């Protein structure tokens, strides 16, 4: 592994946090699709990565300390967020809508979870195969506990049911897009133009 040395930089009241980090190869299954992943010196974990809110109420602040004003109050335990930057005690996270705020590290790291998204209900299947039996349908906006992923499917637990869902409709699953849910929906529903 190669050690990358960088310094904490403070310019015009905004902070850029980099630290003695390590560059490492990360399996695609644990990385965020389409983004360069590095290992943080603060937590020892990959950045970016998905985590979930540990508590039913979490404040998102405009900067990395209690001195900064609250930008958002998140009232959804288990909501997945993407950690995009770190300091010693604070994490800059991106929520499913694309907003970025700072949260204290202790408010993150609950059970891994995903946000169901799409234009219609998402099938929960009995096995990780496209032709498997549908055992339930999940409405977009539900948060499910992530059990694990296998290929294009992830096993989830939601509303007392366990099954497999298409990874492409789960925001927060390992190896999925870092794009906010709205951008992914626009891409999925964009009309295709065929030429003769």
Describe the protein's architecture and organization:
InterPro entries: DUF1058. Keywords: Signal. This is SH3 domain-containing protein. With 196 residues, the chain is mainly beta. It has 2 domains: 106 residues, no CATH class; 76 residues, SH3 Domains (SH3 type barrels, Roll), CATH 2.30.30. It is 5% helix and 41% strand. It contains 1 helix and 19 strands. The strands form 7 sheets. The chain has a 5-stranded antiparallel sheet with strand order 18-17-16-13-19, with no helix packed on it. A 4-stranded antiparallel sheet has the order 7-10-11-12, with no helix packed on it. The protein has a two-stranded antiparallel ribbon with strand order 1-4. Strand 5 and strand 6 form a beta hairpin. The radius of gyration is 18 Å and the shape is globular. The N terminus and C terminus are likely disordered.
Share of β-strand residues: 35-45%
Q: What structural category characterises the helix and strand content?
A: mainly beta
Could you tell me how far the N terminus lies from the C terminus, measured between alpha carbons in angstroms? Answer: 51 Å
Given the C-alpha coordinates, what overall shape results? globular
H-E string = EEEEEEEEEEEEEEEEEEEH
Helical content (DSSP H or I, runs of 4+): under 10%
Count the strands? 19
Radius of gyration computed on alpha carbons: 18 Å
Reading side by side through the largest sheet, how are the strands ordered? 18-17-16-13-19
**What is the number of helices?**
1
Largest sheet: 5 strands, antiparallel
Indicate how many domains the architecture comprises. Answer: 2
User: Could you tell me the mean pLDDT?
Assistant: 81
- Low-pLDDT runs of 5+ residues are 1-30, 188-196
Protein name: SH3 domain-containing protein
Organism: Ponticaulis profundi
Keywords: Signal
Pfam family, one: SH3_4
């Amino acid at each position: 592994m190669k050690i990358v040395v960088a310094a904490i930089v403070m310019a015009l009241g905004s902070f850029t946090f980099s630290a003695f980090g390590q560059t490492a190869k990360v399996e695609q299954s644990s990385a965020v699709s389409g983004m360069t992943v590095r290992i943080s010196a603060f937590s020892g974990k990959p950045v970016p990565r998905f985590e979930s809110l540990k508590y039913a109420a979490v404040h998102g602040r405009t900067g990395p300390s209690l001195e900064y004003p609250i930008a958002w109050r998140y009232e959804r335990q288990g909501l997945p967020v993407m950690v995009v930057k770190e300091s010693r005690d604070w994490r800059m996270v991106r929520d499913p809508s694309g907003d970025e705020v700072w949260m204290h590290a202790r408010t993150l790291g609950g059970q891994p979870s995903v946000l169901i998204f799409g234009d219609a209900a998402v099938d929960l299947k009995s096995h990780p195969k496209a032709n498997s039996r549908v055992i339930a349908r999940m409405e977009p906006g539900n948060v499910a506990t992530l059990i694990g992923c296998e290929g294009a499917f992830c096993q989830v637990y939601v509303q007392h049911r366990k099954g497999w869902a298409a990874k492409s409709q789960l925001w927060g699953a390992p190896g999925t897009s870092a794009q906010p849910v709205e951008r992914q929906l626009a891409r999925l529903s964009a009309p295709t133009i065929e030429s003769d």
